[in-house]
Amino acid sequence: MNKIKEIHSDVLLSLNKHNNTWLPLALKLNELVKAVGGTNKREYWQKHFKVDSFYQYCEIVLKADSSTMYKYLLCAVQIEKHRPDLIELYESDNSIKIAGFTVFYELI
Fold first, then answer.
1. CB 24 within 8 A of CB 17
2. What is the pLDDT of residues 43-84, one digit of tens each?
3. Cα–Cα distance for residue pair 25/76, rounded to 1 Å
4. Is the pTM of this model over 0.85?
5. Residue closest to 57 by CA, chosen among 3, 15, 23
6. What is the pLDDT of residues 14-46, one digit of tens each?
7. Alpha helices in the chain (DSSP H)
8. Which residues contact 14 (CB under 8 A, 6 or more apart)?
9. Is 81:74 a contact under the CB 8 Å cutoff?
10. If 76 and its partner were Cys, which of 2, 30, 93, 107 is the partner (CB 3.0–4.6 Å)?
11. Is residue 15 within 8 Å of 25, Cβ to Cβ?
């Protein structure tokens, strides 16, 4: 429970900073979804955030567009799966620029 609250706090912090880069927010959303058990694990979203799904979490809790947040999530999943080296590179030097999420989303 505390880990999920901590990740949620990181998501909120990343949401506020995501105008500079989308990647930290996308990675934190991915981490949160994994911790909760998936985007549609209703009982877990209800337990932790009083919403039914990731989409409601985005709209109600984050007050952000769920469509955009879901695109970020999809991109993070694909980068983690196919190019984890980009994540490692970004984490070691977060001043590097990663392509915009729309490039990754179009590739998906």
1. yes
2. 999 999 999 999 999 999 999 999 999 999 998 998 899 888
3. 9
4. no
5. 15
6. 765 554 478 889 999 999 999 999 988 999 999
7. 2-17, 23-36, 42-49, 54-56, 66-82, 84-92, 101-107
8. 24, 25, 27, 28, 29
9. no
10. 30
11. yes
Residue 6 corresponds to which amino acid? E
Q: How far is CA 101 from CA 6, 10, 53, in A?
A: 25, 19, 23
- Per-position b or e across 36-68, b if 16+ CB within 10 A of its CB: beebebeeebeebbebebbbbbbbebbebebee
Structure tokens at 46: 């209800």
Q: For residue 108, what are its two tokens?
A: 């998906």
Q: Which long-range contacts (CB under 8 A, 24 or more apart) does 93-96 make?
A: 94/21, 94/24
